[in-house]
Amino acid sequence: MPVKIPDSLPARGVLEAENVFLIEEHRALQQDIRPLRIAILNLMPTKVATETQLLRLLGNTPLQVEVTLLHMASHTAKNTSAEHLLEHYVSFAEVRDQAFDGLIVTGAPVETLPFEAVDYWEELAELLDWAKTHVFSSFFICWGAQAALHRYYGIGKYELPEKQFGVFPHRLLVRHERIVQGFDDVFYAPHSRHTETRRDDILAEPRLVLLAESEEAGVYLVQSADRRQLFVTGHSEYDPCTLQGEYARDLGKGLPIGVPKNYFPEDDPTREPLVRWRGHSNLLFSNWLNYFVYQEAPFELDVPSAKGGRP
Known about the structure:
It is a single chain. This protein is α/β, with parallel strands linked by helices. It has one domain (3-159, 195-241, 278-294): Class I glutamine amidotransferase (GATase) domain (Rossmann fold). The protein has 10 helices and 12 strands. The chain has helices spanning 11-17, 25-29, 47-58, 82-88, 92-95, 121-134, 143-153, 199-203, 242-252, 278-294, and strands spanning 3-4, 22-23, 36-41, 65-71, 89-91, 100-105, 135-141, 158-172, 186-196, 208-214, 218-224, 229-232. Strands 1, 2, 3, 4, 5, 6, 7, 8, 9, 10, 11 and 12 form a 12-stranded mixed sheet that branches. α4 (82-88) links the parallel β4 and β5.
């Protein structure tokens, strides 16, 4: 089934060229089914690229998904045009009275700041509190995961001596959970961050379950005990050349940056990157949409509701 997005969204042309299943708004309105309502709070500076990455993954399922793109009104975007935000995004204030099947909160380039020092923290904290009653299942990525763990569970983040940068092997700690159904015992995922969430902090919180980790990159996949929240510390949504672009950007700025690990063949940045995370990435998003959103969220979303199955 397709992803329903506005006809004018820039990602549409890229996704159509890749044969990702999309549907025009007027066609979706004629179908007698209810699409899944997914809100995406896009905190990344490269908003169009991130939209495309996430929509590509949401479109690789047999479910119709209606996406609402959110931005923080308390923050002025420097890398995205005001016209793009006005045409395709809404503020949290515009949806606070609505309910959604799912919410995705992306990473953000603010991880070295204390949470409360981020200029939109107060608005984000309000949204995270709202999500507990107005969203059935939430999916938090990288800094978004750290922010949600801090807000919900008081779990901190810790600065790393150098950037965790590259593609790392991870192993499953729990195999019976549906979110990891179909995963290999060892799978790969990209990371690009200056801070970490510590294993001992997760294990000390009985309301959280550590599902997967990396010997080198640390905590990767965490789930709330009620299975309503998913925290991913890496960037499974990244395109094949995203890390390459970040590496070139940091080099150009004269920042201290190493070659992303396990990414270029023989760690040679003149060679084409090797993609080893695409299968895991598609499984992660399709499992979330199917088992934790479609199969569990109530059909009626007019008001916040308790857990109930779809008819």
